[in-house]
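retry 2 of 3: previous attempt timed out while embedding FE2/S2 (inorganic) cluster. Reduced batch size to 1 and resubmitted. Inputs unchanged:
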Amino acid sequence: MEQKITFQLNGKKTEAMLDPSQTLLWVLRDHFGLTGTKFGCGMGFCGSCTVLIDNEPLRSCQVTVGEVAGKKVVTIEGLAEKGKLHPVQKAFVEHDALQCGFCTPGMIMNATGLLLKNPNPTTEQIKAGMEDNLCRCGAHVRIVEAVKTASKEMKGGK
Ligand code: FES
Ligand code: FES
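retry 2 succeeded.
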């Protein structure tokens, strides 16, 4: 049964009548039109549906919209600010860290969550933090380089 669900979506207070048991991924895509969050496996394996929930990168195919009531959800559409790309987005462009781009929103959201938790990761920590997001195109090496570059920029180049 539908009920009013309130949460923050990409920085804006959002209220909608929704069935709380609906999967967040499909609510984002179908109700809010935020199709940057991708459906890959629907089973929690691939990471293409990753969003930030209270700054934690989580797989939106495994979360219901009822579970995000009162929380902050950020999707790939909400990362850029005032028309300026987020450092992780910028680094992915600079390093050409994609091929078909299907995994890219999930990769960027996962990397952003990783850098919020650990602003200065080692290469090994980046690999460990990103390895559960799958890329069928084999862009992993460039993705690791992009995350390194973003980490420098997010620390002001220190
Ligand atoms: S679609 Fe959610 S993990 Fe694959
Ligand atoms: S760039 Fe194609 S799946 Fe990653």
